[in-house]
Prior knowledge:
- By secondary structure, the chain is α/β, with parallel strands linked by helices.
- The chain has helices at about 5-20, 30-40, 75-85, 95-100, 105-125, 130-145, 160-170, 185-195, 235-240, 255-265, 300-305, 315, and strands spanning about 55-60, 130, 175-180, 200-205, 210-215, 215-220, 250, 270-275, 310-315.
- It is built from 12 helices and 9 strands.
Amino acid sequence: MNVKCLLAALLLWLPFAQADDLSAWRDSAAKHAIVQWVQGATLSGGSAFIPENQRYVVFDNDGTLWPEAPLTFQLQFALDEVKRLAPSHPQWQQDPLVQAVLADDKAALLKAGKKGLMHLLELTHANMTTDEFTQRVQQWVDTQRHSRFGCRYDALGYQPMRQLLDYLRKNGFKTWIVSGGGIDFMRVLAEKMYGIPAENVIGSFSLAEFSLSDNGTQLRKTMNGAFYDDEAAKPVAIHLFMGHRPVAAFGNSDGDVPMLQYTSSNPNAKTFGLLVHHTDAQREYAYDAHPPASGKLVSGLTLAPRYGWTIVDMQRDWLNVFDPTLCKPE
């Protein structure tokens, strides 16, 4: 075989060799779009080449990297914490929202809305040190199981998306989480589940208070200055914490649309956008306009053709949803 034929064969083989890094993906248009974009972005001298120091990519978390149904993991943690702590807080007996949690009254919890959610977060996420909060989250992860799948919560990262994160990092991309979830909550899990270090996690937060203690110094969690990292706040948070406009963005809901729009308008790169569409009621959940808790996806589906975003059909495009060696769903 002459040199030209060898090079041609290599170029034909390369996409399939790289695609093996995405073995939990079916050989569909979505997978091809990912591989084609990464190859273009990493081909030195090519028209779509992106220098390595500009390869910042951002991922939503709830519904994009792990499930958000029937409740987000953090909300389930808050509910479980209320139940665990209630016996040692007799004053909570007069709190109607706490009583709704103890009675598993989902209708009352939904009716309480955002105000009720903030109250639950105040009860379970504030008035403790950051170290104590981390310990509480880790204890919850170690002891609780998902109500449907029966697995540890840290075993429920989507296998195709975990492979995608590894694939991007292998090709010189810097991966970040940009999510409406709490920054302190996600940081407990992000490195183990996704290989994303704490400093690359952007999420909702409130201001902690610094103080001196008998043992040195500490940060105490409060509800002051709360910042909710969703919708239009996501590009703001990306600028504030990351300082770079991403070249790729991955989400699953209308709350991620501003982040994808911000990324798609990057003037210095051929960008990539992707939305995970939950279509698999058998292996996970199926929803878009009417999610069980969060993750409404309507405008994202409408805008995707205009911006050239890839839509991942979970049922059609993923061979596995979860890693079967970590969690085998019912």
